[in-house]
Amino acid sequence: MHPTPDPVIQSLIDAQEGPFVLIDGDYRVVAANTAYREAYGLGADEPIVGRRCYEVSHHLDHPCHLDGEDCPHRRVFETQRQHVVLHTHYDRSGRAEHVRIKGHPVAGPGGERLVGEAITRLAGTEDMDCEEMRLIGNSPALLRAVDKLTQVAQSDLGILLLGESGVGKDLAARYVHSRSPRREGPFQVVDCSTLNGELFESEIFGHEPGAFTGCVGRKQGLFELADGGTLFLDEVGELPLAMQAKLLRALESGQFRRLGAEEAGSADVRVVTATNRDLAAMVREGTFREDLYYRLACITIQLPSLRERREDIPALAEALLTRINRANGTHCTLSSAALERLSAYDFPGNIRELRNILQRAVALCSGGVIGVEELGLEGESVPVERYRAAAPPSLRELELRSIQELLERYEGRRKPVAEALGMSERTLYRKLKRYGLN
Fold first, then answer.
1. What region holds the Sigma-54 factor interaction domain (predicted)?
2. Among 163, 83, 244, 118, which Cα is nearest to 422's?
């Protein structure tokens, strides 16, 4: 036990801006700075020296590695080298938050071996919350994505978010904006799959009265409305070549011209884009401009599919079900068998499909408990090991597979397929034509 921290050590760790703690070989806290105390709800007079680290940050009665986590304390003591991990900690109110921990060996004043842990907060539950709560989870795949989103948020470079339909690219874009220096500015969203020709120019750049037939009044475009903030271009791979050239000019110069206007305006905009298409392949095929691609894809981030983070499915399903119950005035719960079935399901439509499955199950549930039958999932469960061992397919292959599976399930009806994939019927029709699907 260490009844009082060494004054020299305490002065050194107090100089750290973020939460910092020193821990001995028995997981006991030797010293902690004020930021660490505040992060975990410990008052200035509340004893912390001698408490075990996992009691404070994990609210556990045993070390986290016993639950299968990558414990930085254990790894540093084993290797005597620096080790960085992504973890889920719990704040003073018991809310989960994602953190990055950098642990490194420290020699104490008496020569004893210690571990110093510098903690960087990535996101709390409230930061990743939205109507569909799609970024809930503690899986390594999700934590890696959140860590990278947090790092790049501080830059003004273009970010391209990649991933299948329904993985939460829009929420990831909002997360980047909320963690950026532009967080107090506007966040504007453009669904590029719905725009072409004059409609694109009108929505993005605005128009003056009489700019085209039926045009009444002046309209500010979303590029102008995003001044000082972030413009999120969703489904950017759907933009026709002619529109790509106009977008590139605006991004390079920061200037735009409303339809029918004589003078150009300017806006300071940070652009985040997203697609489920392979833009690099489109560049090679000549269907996407190379110069625009490099402008948008300064930083690319791949968001994991639900298959790649199956361990998050139970928590995500419960959170979505809570929202659905609140909206419908119902009180349905998931049986353990239903949770197990959901965790083994492939989810070609990702979180959007999970939400739709739960909404249907609530409508069909008569006894308050959702069983496997109410889920309506057909076919055999897919072993998780199969996906861990297989080579990752391309985005194009994943999209084709998802569409084919949903077409079979909904017997070729386009509307429910489009809803499950989170896209318009018009966009789905173009994809069916591209892949040669009837």
1. 135-363
2. 163
